[in-house]
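Side project, low priority. Logging it here so it doesn't get lost.
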Amino acid sequence: MRLLAEMLSYPFLVRAFVGGVLVCVCAALLGVSLVLKRYSMIGDGLSHVSFGALSIALAAGWAPLAVSVPVVVTAAFFLLRMTEQSRVKSDAAIAMISASALAAGIVATSLTTGLTTDVSSYMFGSILAMSPSDVKLSVVLSAVVLGLFVFCYNKIFAVTFDESFARATGVRVSLYNVLIAVLTAVTIVLGMQMMGAMLISSLIIFPALTSMRVFRSFRAVVWSSALVSAVCFCLGMTASYYFSTPAGASVVLVNLGAFLCFWAAEKVRGRLRAGKGRDR
């Protein structure tokens, strides 16, 4: 408690906690659908697109977020259309788009400003550098993402598990697939400064996989993912402050530890059930 009180006495750490928890919860909620739909690597692909857009914007002197949000949303839409209507598989499409965007960002950086502090923070993350305006934008956009997810929860559930049945019941599957992709794109852009292009996909993948080790229902996995993500972020930030390690990497390692703990709990529960079955 003393360590936590000491951390919260710094305004930049308070901003980091507020913005980080909101982004982590958004990423975890969307990650459940993405993992179940085998689109878990879309976060990694869109993060590279975001890095390319941010690098070009910084090189041209434009507002980074104002440029990256529409670019990443467009990339998400294009990625869905490519995988739905062509012979290109989802993993190949993600790899192609992410590699191209990352290369474009690196070239733009090398030809203009070079690897500045701003560019480096978007590559590797620099959550402690979040300004009050960054936090306000994160709060507003995170509220929009959470509100749309809750409002469209039933439709997202239907589209996640059985697109054919959802389409037969009148659900506009393409619309809600695009909605999931757009919300993911916005979350990726928000999390870039926090985790960086190299680690942002972990916020999408780890909480969902961790919760699926123990829970089976969609609702339970969604709630557990949000809670696990928020707790892991707070623990990671605390460990980063105490051991003076990079914040983004610390959060990922805590998420890995949570996954291993849940995986061990799943194995123990399975053995206990098998033992009870033999006793009967």
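Brief comment: The mean pLDDT is 85.
Revisit when time allows.
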